[in-house]
Amino acid sequence: MRFLLAYAATAIALSPLPAALAEADGHDPDFDMAAIMGHVEFLSDDLLEGRAAGTRGYEIAARYVATSLRRYGLQPGGKDGSFYQRFDLVEGRLAPESAEMSIDSANGSKRLETVDDFLVGGSYVDETTDVTAPLAFVGHGITAPELDHDDYAGLDVEGRILVMFSGAPSTFSHDQRAYYSTRDAKFPNAVERGAVGLLVVQTPEWYRKYEWDNLVRAYAFSGMRWSGQDGRIKGVYPQLRFGAALSREGLQKILQGSGVQPQGLYDQVDNGIAGGRLLEGTLTFRRRSEQSGSQGINVAAILPGADPDLRDEFVAITAHLDHIGIGPERDGDGIYNGAYDNAMGVAIMLEVARAMSEPGARPARSVLFLALDAEEKGLLGSDYFAEYPLVPMERIVANVNLDMPLFIYPLADVVAFGAEHSSLEAHVERAAAAAGLKLSPDPMPEEVLFIRSDQYPFVKQGVPAVFFVTGFTSSDPSINGGDIWRDFLRTHYHQPSDQIDLPFHDGSVVAFTLANYFLIQSIADDPVRPTWNRGDFFGDLFGGTR
User: Fold this and answer.
1) Is 84 in the same domain as 98?
2) Is residue 298 part of a domain?
3) Most C-beta atoms within 10 A of its C-beta, which of 257, 261, 316, 376?
4) Each residue of 282-306: pLDDT tens digit?
5) Exposure pattern of 262-299 as b/e (b: 16+ CB <10 Å)?
6) What's the whole-model pTM score?
7) Residue 1 falls within a domain, yes or no?
8) Between the CA of residue 410 and those of 413, 476, 509, 510, what are the distances in Å?
C-alpha cells in the first residue's frame, strides 16, 4: 500500500515550490510505507544478529542493500563493477581478566578494579602492554591558541600517563567544542608532548545525564580500526601504550596521596578553566590483547545525473548499515538489532533511491548512495571512504547523512545538524517546508552530534554536509516529543530493545522520507555548488582541502 503525504500536499499548495522542487512536481514521489518497514524488518531481524561489522550478519545486510539498489536500476559504485568497497578491519580484544592497574604513592600501593574503577579495551598492535609511569593532569587535554586555552601550559609531560576529562569546555562555542572534543584533536596533541598513556574521566555534565553503566555496556564490545592500502592502521598511536576510561571512584584512588581533591578538578572543567599539574604517584598498567582481522564492506551505488553538464558531480547520501551485534543480555535478549539505529535510515535511503530512479525523476547531478560499515566502531566505513573515495572527492558537492531518525510520535519538525555552516541551510529549509515540516535548531548542542556520525569524515575533506534527523516537536500538542526522544536514548539506544516491535508512526516516516527526497533533489538540481559560509569554523578549518 502506498502513501502520498496529505499534509505535505497541503503545504505545497499554500506556498509555491522553489524552482528546483517545482520542476519535479510533475512526478510526485509516491512512497511505499510497506516497503520501508519491510527493509527495517529484514535488516533488524534476529537472523542478522545485530549486523556487527566484520560478521556474517552484516555481510547478509550488505548483500540485501546491494541487490535492492541493483533492482532499482542504479549503477555499481564500487570497484571492478561491483556494489562493494571492501577494506581491512583490525579488531583488538582484551584477554579476559588480564587488565591490571595500580597506583603507588606516599600512601602506599592501591589496586584499581576493572569495571568499578576503570574500563579498557584491547590493543590493536601489541600482544602485551606493561607500563609504569608518573602521572599528570591536563584538564581536557586541549591546546587552542586562538581561544587562549592551553591545558599543557608550563607542563613537561614527556613519559607520563595523562589524566584528562572527556569533551571540551562549555565556554567554547558550539562548533569549537565539537571539534576539540574529538580524538583527532586530543590524541596527537598528547603524542606530540611525549605522553605514554591516557586515563579519561567523564565530565560532571556527562554524569548528570548518563551513568557509568553506559560506558560499561559500550566496553563489552571490542574495538576496531581500519587498515589502509599502505598497511597503516588508522587512528592508532603506538606511543600511547594504552587508553582507559576512569570512573569517579577510580579518580579518587588515583588522587589519594597527591594532595589534589577530585572536586577541585571537576570544578575546574565545569568552569572552563584551562591548565594542568603534575601529580604525585606512579601508575602501573598491564594487559594482554588479541588481534584479528576481518573485512569491512561499504555498499555504493550511483544514479547518473540527467544533465550532461552536471552529471560528473555527485550528492552523496549516506546511512550506516552496521549496528553493534551480540552483547550482554537484557531481559533475556542479547541481540542488539538496531531497528531505528540504523535500519530505518538505510530503509529511507533505499526508498529515496527507488523513487529517484523512476522515469522523469532523475535529478541533474548524479547521486551516490552509500550504506556504510563500522560507524558504531568509530565512523570507520565513512572515514575509509573519505581517504579512498570511489569518485573524486572534489566532485562530491554535498553529503546528506541519515542516522537513527525516530518516529515514535507524530512528527512536526526536523533538525539538520550542520546546515548552519553552509549554503545547504537554504536547501534544508525549502525541503522541510515542501514536506510540511518545520526546521528546528539543534535541541542538544551539548552532545556535539555534528562530529559524531558519518558526515564528519566528509566535512574533514571539505565537503559541506548535513546530518538530517527527526525533531523533538510532535504535531500532537499533548505529546512531548523531546521527553520521548530522551527516554529512547535512556532505555532503547544501543539496547536489544531497539527492534521492530517499537512504535513507528506511518505518516511521520513518509513525511521525513519526502523531506529527504526534496533535499537531495534540491541540491542536485541547483546549478550552483554548495559553499561554506564565510568565516565558518569548519569551512575555515577544512574547506581548503578542496
Assistant:
1) no
2) yes
3) 316
4) 999 999 999 999 999 999 999 999 9
5) eeebbebbeebebebbebbbbbbbebbbeeeebebbbb
6) 0.92
7) no
8) 10, 6, 9, 11
